[in-house]
Write a structure and sequence with these properties.
With 182 residues, the protein is of the alpha+beta class. The protein contains six helices and six strands; from the N terminus they run ααβαβαββββαα. It has a six-stranded antiparallel sheet, sandwiched between helices. Helix 3 crosses helix 5. The termini are far apart.
């Protein structure tokens, strides 16, 4: 009986530990969505009118693999400057955990961004973009999906760049928080 209790206790500890680790980015979004200093938007993929978008089969598969996009931004102002610094550090700490792989880092003129993912190289479950700008603030974007294929996602992004996918809703969101979206 003691062995059963020990085994159940060990399983409980492992479950609690794994739940705490796996919820960190999700927990961050949940904890900050009602913060008045942040702008939070959840966009289901169903908002994209797939009937009006002219995509090839690979691009359409990539689009359909996306379930939802979470967007969280903290516009920079005199009032939010200390919070901007604190939250930038907190997000970087979450994203530096071993469960996120870095795809790329880039930056220019006071803007820094990192693109990370979670999952296997050919089966991505989550893509994260974290950007900070010393004049505008920070933005955290989380793309959730099933079996997102990096090659297909890259082709979809090329379609976005070519204007095949209408991102007017995202452009208006960017204008609202004073972020330039091309």
């Amino acid at each position: 009986m003691k062995n059963v209790f020990k085994i159940l206790s060990l399983i409980a500890v492992l479950l609690v530990t794994s739940c705490n680790d796996s919820a960190s980015l999700q927990r961050y979004f949940v904890d900050h969505q009602d913060d008045n200093d942040f702008i939070a938007v959840d966009v289901p993929s169903s908002l994209l009118d797939k009937e009006r978008i002219h995509l090839n089969e690979e691009e359409l598969e990539a689009l359909e693999s996306i379930k939802k996009v979470n967007f969280l931004a903290l516009p920079l102002s005199d009032k939010t400057e200390a919070k901007f610094n604190k939250e930038s550090i907190a997000i970087a700490k979450i994203l530096n955990s071993d469960k996120y792989e870095t795809l790329m880092r880039f930056g220019t003129n006071g803007t820094k961004a990192v693109l990370k993912y979670q999952g296997e190289d050919d089966d991505i479950d989550e893509v994260i973009v974290f950007a900070t700008d010393q004049e505008k603030g920070l933005a955290l974007v989380r793309v959730l999906g099933d079996n997102m294929n990096p090659k297909k996602m890259a082709k979809l992004m090329q379609s976005v760049e070519k204007g095949k996918v209408d991102l007017d809703a995202f452009k208006k969101l960017g204008e609202t928080i004073n972020i330039h979206v091309d």
